Amino acid sequence: MRRPSEPPALPAVSDVLGALSDTVAGVEDDLLASLVVMGEADAQRTVDGWVDQVVDLLRAVDEVAVQHRATLARAHARQPGVVDGHTSVGDVGTATALGPAATEQP
Question: Where is this region: Disordered (predicted)?
Fold first, then answer.
């Protein structure tokens, strides 16, 4: 059974994933900027293969982070009280704490 998401947590998780993407991009740039020249063909192929694998992994992590940020943005937009991507103060917390009757109009 799915647990309902906590609306205030969605933007925070999205911010963390954004920071992860930025960090991964920086690490990828640093790694590619520091190509090591070994001098031996076999050693060079080994190092180049390792660098390629790490760069592929970093790109895959970034891709997954971007996908999750898009999913979180859609989930956050579907939350009650969200207007233009921002939660109205009191709407979500009050509705969650008091239950469905708190949001019903007389």
Answer: 76-106
